[in-house]
Amino acid sequence: MTVEGHEGGCLCGALRYRISSRGLALTACHCTDCQRSSGSAFGMSLILLRDSVQLTQGTPRTFTKEFEDDGRLKHNKFCGECGVRIWTEFSKLPQILNVKPGTLDDAKWLNPVAHIWVRSKQPWVPIPDGVLSFETQPADFGIVLKAFADQQAHAK
Ligand SMILES: [Zn+2]
Ligand SMILES: [Zn+2]
What we know:
By secondary structure, the chain is mostly beta strands. The chain contains two helices and eleven strands, in the order E-E-E-H-E-E-E-E-E-E-E-E-H. The strands form two sheets. Strands 6-7-8-9-4-3-10-11 form an eight-stranded mixed sheet. A three-stranded antiparallel sheet has the order 1-2-5, with no helix packed on it. The longest helix is centred in the last third of the chain and has 13 residues, at 142-154. The termini are close together. It binds zinc ion (ZN) (2 copies). One zinc ion (ZN) binds next to loops.
């Protein structure tokens, strides 16, 4: 879905960005990396084509980490002032960005269609009815893309 004026930024306001689409998928990840990096129970990922994300202010810093399973690199882009991560880029999927959607000015429309790495979720976190749930990484991410497309087709 193409959108107008979806903007976001870090906590101090040094970094600002704009997205021109609601993206390809929205997931909640319960892996231990996401728990640590969010300082919370899970991380949310809004997956977008890189072309639909535009940095409008500031220069992010980069923290690069390897995925433990296969050595892919993820480049976390964050604010050097306030430390907030705004998105992640992937060495093997350069056309994709993973925006941290809690940094959007309007986060009310966000509703993850899939919960992943559920095997390491904190025990108090319920998985809502009617969403996809995966013990680890989905083997076929196409299911997640389709669920998000269906959700957005029914959104106003
Ligand atoms: Zn900042
Ligand atoms: Zn994760």
